[in-house]
Amino acid sequence: MTKAEAYDKAWRLGARGDFSLVDQIYHPNYSSFDYRTGIDANIEDDKIIVATLQEDLVQGP
C-alpha cells in the first residue's frame, strides 16, 4: 500500500469512528495551522473535525 493509499484508508476509517490507522501513521507531535479558524491543530483536533464533519457529509467510493 502506498503512503497515499494508507492516508486515504486511515481517514475513511476515521470518518466511521476508527482512528487506529490515523494513530499509526501520524507522529504524536503532529500539528498544522488551520487558516479557517486561525488555530494550530493537533491530531486529536483533526479527529474531532473529521468526526463532526462526517455527520453532514456522504463519502464517495
Order of helices and strands: HHEEH
- Shape descriptor: globular
> What Rg, in angstroms, do the CA atoms define?
12 Å
Helix content range of the residues, please?
40-55%
**What is the end-to-end distance?**
18 Å
Instruction: Report the mean per-residue pLDDT as an integer.
Output: 87
- Supply the number of structural domains: 1
The major beta sheet can be summarized as: 2 strands, antiparallel
What fraction of residues sit in β-strands? 5-15%
Lateral strand order in the biggest sheet: 1-2
pLDDT < 50 runs, ≥5 residues: none
Discrete helix count? 3
Number of strand elements: 2
Alpha-beta content class: alpha+beta
Summarize the structure.
The chain is α+β, with helices and mostly antiparallel strands and 61 residues long. The chain contains 3 helices and 2 strands; from the N terminus they run ααββα.
Protein topology:
Layout: H1 3-15, H2 20-25, E1 31-34, E2 39-42, H3 43-54
Antiparallel strand pairs: 1-2
Overview of the molecule:
The protein is an alpha+beta fold. It has one domain. It has three helices and two strands. The chain has helices spanning 3-15, 20-25, 43-54; strands at residues 31-34, 39-42. It has a two-stranded antiparallel sheet. Strand 1 (31-34) and strand 2 form a beta hairpin. The protein is globular, with a radius of gyration of 12 Å. The two termini are 18 Å apart. The model has no long low-confidence stretch (mean pLDDT 87).
